Amino acid sequence: MLVGIFLIFIGSCKKEDVNNSTVIDIDGNVYHTVTIGTQVWTLENLETTRYLNGDSIPKIIAKNDWSNQTTGAQCIYNNNPELGYSYGRLYNWHAVNDTRKIAPKGWHVPTDAEWTTLENYVAEHLGYSGSPAKALASNTNWTQFVEVNGVGNDLSKNNSSGFTALPGGNRYSDGDHDDVGDIGCWWSSTEGDTSIAWSKGIYFYYATISRNGSNKVCGLSVRCIKD
Asked: Helix, strand, coil proportions of the chain in percent (round to 5)?
């Protein structure tokens, strides 16, 4: 199911360093970090329920309430705490764009250009993974699939970059949850127009990373990058 998301495909290496350093968000959640090229990323998806100034990010459970939301909101996939623990929270873009900021101090939600920098670096340093999507995707949790060099084909060959992207699914603009295990999508801070913002997507059945024009109401995962 793809409601409110439009896909625009963009068409010898060691695993990058997983740093010993960690970063803590305002809720006390601890994130490990990984250096890939010149960038430092959080290794886990964002979990915070508060903006950096301490204000709460509303948790929206009801389907209709989510689809009508015009300010920042967050949720756990299907309101299932176990999935939240594994995949972090899903945020609409209004939360990403809020001036109170959702990233820990010293970090930010990556721009579309910063995501492209990561993608380009990984494409030039594939190592054993064979494709950019496999190089970013984790070795676990993805649905298996036969596509050559696709994320779901031989999970042991995923994650040469150390980015460890997990398939946390989405909450679509109509408020439905879908695609956990199949898809991971992450917001950028870059607006497309009044109704969409840019995001990156990884799919179990593809070898490529997608650049998505996603409805700002959609709930997607968030990774943070160091300032």
From this structure: 20, 30, 55
Torsion, CA 5, CA 10, CA 12, CA 18, rounded to 10: -30
Domain that holds residue 96: 5-226
pLDDT of 29 above 70? yes
Q: Which two tokens stand for residue 6?
A: 């439009």
What confidence category does residue 83 fall into, taking pLDDT thresholds of 50, 70 and 90?
Answer: very high
CB-side exposure of 170: number of CA atoms within 13 Å?
28
Per the listing, tokens 């950096």 go with: 52
**Strands of the sheet with 107-108, listed across from one edge:** 18-24, 30-36, 39-42, 225-226, 107-108
* pLDDT-wise least confident of 13-17, 36-40, 70-74, 138-142: 13-17
Q: How many domains does the chain have?
A: 1
C-alpha 176: how far from its chain's center? 18
* 3-state secondary structure labels for all residues of 169-209: EEECCCCCEECCCCEEEEEEEEECCCCEEEEEEEECCCCCC
Q: What is the pLDDT of residue 54?
A: 98
Per-residue tokens: 22: 């960690």
**For residue 81, which amino acid is it?**
P
- Which comes out higher in pLDDT, residue 219 or 17? 219
